[in-house]
Amino acid sequence: MAANLEYYKQQAIKILYDKNKLSEILTKVEAKTQVKREYLALGTVVLISLYLVFGYGAQLICNVIGFIYPAYCSIKALESTKKEDDTRWLTYWVVFALFSVCEFFSDLLLSWFPFYWLAKCVFLVWCFLPVAWNGSDLIYNRVIRPFFIKHEREIDSAMSKVHDKINELADNATRVAADAVKHD
């Protein structure tokens, strides 16, 4: 257990010192405050965690954390020429979407638990962390992909029916709109 904690601590420190925008910001704040970046990051995490437990608008803060950084990284991935980053962020969004659908049905019950927004935020951060043991890869490879492969034919058949129905509805709507324009 102690070895695992030390490993995670080293990974967090590595993220704080890697050459990235976060590191640039931390360097400036560290220089102005004379407080080590590890303590700045820990203090920020503690404050956000407390706010997610006790603060007003915790749901919004949680959803912003789970959306803003991944959306930014997804746009950067789309603009890069590498396929790996596209796959990584597409995997995150598939897991995020599945979680959002499941949450829709359980949100009324779960949101009453005092640590729900903190737990959800930790889960979403785990899903987008830039590490090998990130949650979206684990959930996709162990849950979503096996289920999809097992039921691919049924899913394709259902999606084909939905596609046909949407095309039929679009044709009907176009026809009704054209008739309405003719009569005016």
UniProtKB/TrEMBL annotation:
This is Receptor expression-enhancing protein. Keywords: Membrane, Transmembrane, Transmembrane helix. It comes from the Eukaryota. The lineage of its organism: Eukaryota, Metazoa, Ecdysozoa, Arthropoda, Crustacea. It is a multi-pass membrane protein. The chain crosses the membrane at residues 39-69, 115-135. InterPro entries: TB2_DP1_HVA22. Signal peptide: none annotated. The keyword Transmembrane helix applies. Belongs to the DP1 family. One of its GO terms (cellular component) is membrane. It is found in: Membrane. The keyword Ribosomal protein does not apply.
